[in-house]
Amino acid sequence: LNISKKEASEEDVNKWFELLKPTIYVLLISGIVTFVLNLLSLIALGLDKNVGCHNKFVFLRYLCFVYCLFGIGLVVISSEKLQHFDVSCNANIDVCFWENFLFEVSLFQIIDGNLCAALDRCFAIFAPTYYCQKYKHFVKFGILTFAILHSILVEIQIYFSVETSELYKRHLYDSWYIKAQLILPIVVTILLYVVLIVFIKFKMHKIKGEDNSAHLHYQLKEKLLITLILCVLSYIVTIVLSIIVINIAYTYYNFTDAVRIAQYALFGYFSGIVHFALLFYRTEEFRIAILNIITNWKILQMRKINASSILPENRSYATKKSRATTSVIS
After folding, report:
1. CATH topology of domain 10-282
2. What phi and psi values does residue 4 have, to the nearest 5 degrees?
3. What's the mean pLDDT in 285-296?
4. What angle separates helix 55-83 from helix 10-47, to the nearest 10 degrees?
5. Residue 41 · residue 64 · CB < 8 Å
6. In whole angstroms, what is the distance from residue 24 CA to residue 82 CA?
7. What is the percentage of the chain residues whose pLDDT exceeds 70?
8. Are 178 and 154 in contact (CB under 8 A)?
C-alpha cells in the first residue's frame, strides 16, 4: 500500500484512501477467514488422537499455526491502514516496521515450514528404519526451532538494512540477499518433492503386481507428497506472484495507476485459505479431524438447546422426583 514516490497533499491522501479502501477491507476479511480456518485446523489436529502420533502432522500443525500468524498479520496491517492511513510511512519507520513484522515473519516461516516438511518426508522415505525407530522428538522440534530462528534473523537483517524511510517498503523486494532467502528454500523444497515423487513412482513400478499392501502404502505416500507440493505451489502462485505484481506497480510514478495495478496482487493474501482447502480436499485424516470437531460442536449446541428448552415446571418436577427418590433410598 505504501508505494508513493513523492510527498502528497492531504487531499491527495484522502483520494487515494478512498481508492484503496475496498482493497483494505478485502485484506481484513481475508485475514479473519485465514485465521479462523487455520485455528480450526490447529485445534482439530491437536484434539484428534489418530493424527497426534504421526510426525507428518507435526509439520502440518506448524504450518496451520504459521498461517494463523499470517491471518493476524493481515488483520493488523489492514486495521492500522483503516485507522491511520499514511501514504509513505515517513513519519515513523519503527511503527511501519512493527506494523508489518508479524506478516513478514509469517511469510518466511511458511517457506521454512514447507522446507521442514520436505526434509521430514525425505527421512521417512529414504531412511524409514531411522525414521520409525530413532527419529526423536528433539530432531523434528530442532528443525522447527531452526525455521523460527531463521525467519526472525531475516527480519533483523531487514530492520538493519533499512537506511532511509523511502526504502522501507521496497527492502523486501530490492535486496538480493533477502530475495535469495525467500527464493532458495522454495526451490530446494520443490526439488526435494520432485525427487521424492520420482523415487516413489520408481518403487511402485518395481513392486507392481507383487505386493498389494506395499503398493497401497506407496500410493498413500505419493498422495501425501503431491498434496504437500501443491501447498508449496499454491504459496508460490499466490504470495510470490503478488510480490511480482507489487514490484510492477512500484514502477508507476502515478499513484492512482500504481494502485490499480497493485489491486491484482490481492490474490496473494488468500494463500492461507487455499492451503486449508487443499488439505481438506486431499488429506483424509485432516478432513475427518475437521468434520469431527464440527460434529462435536453441533452436538454440544444441541445439548445446550435441549437443556434450555426444558420447561420450568418440568424442571422443578424432575428435581422433586429426584429428591424423593434419594430420600427413599436413604
Report:
1. Rhopdopsin 7-helix transmembrane proteins (1.20.1070)
2. -80, 155
3. 85
4. 160
5. yes
6. 7
7. 71
8. yes
Q: Concatenate the DSSP letters of all residues of 45-70 into one string.
A: HHH-HHHHT-HHHHHHHHHHHHHHHH
Please check whether residue 250 is in contact with residue 258, taking contact to mean a CB–CB distance below 8 angstroms: yes
Grid cell, residue 59, equals 509439520
Query: What are the structural domain ranges in the chain?
Result: 10-282, 284-330
* Identity of the residue numbered 323: R
Cα–Cα distances (Å) from 25 to 168, 175, 262, in that order, read: 23, 30, 15
What integer best gives the mean pLDDT of the chain?
A: 74
Q: In the prediction, which pLDDT does 35 show?
A: 95
Q: Whole-model pTM? A: 0.77
Give the Cα separation of 311 and 15 in Å (integer): 59
b or e along 23-34 (b: 16 or more beta carbons within 10 Å of the residue's beta carbon)? bbebbbebbebb
Sign of CA dihedral 142, 234, 42, 221: negative
If we measure between CA atoms, which residue out of 60, 64, 59 comes closest to residue 35? Answer: 64
Residue 304 confidence (pLDDT) above 50: yes
CA dihedral 274, 171, 103, 193 (to 10 degrees): 40
Q: What CA–CA distances, in Å, run from 15 to 22, 124, 221?
A: 13, 56, 54
Q: Which of 289, 237, 290 is nearest to 265 (CA)?
A: 237
CA distance 275 to 269: 11
pLDDT score of 266 more than 50: yes
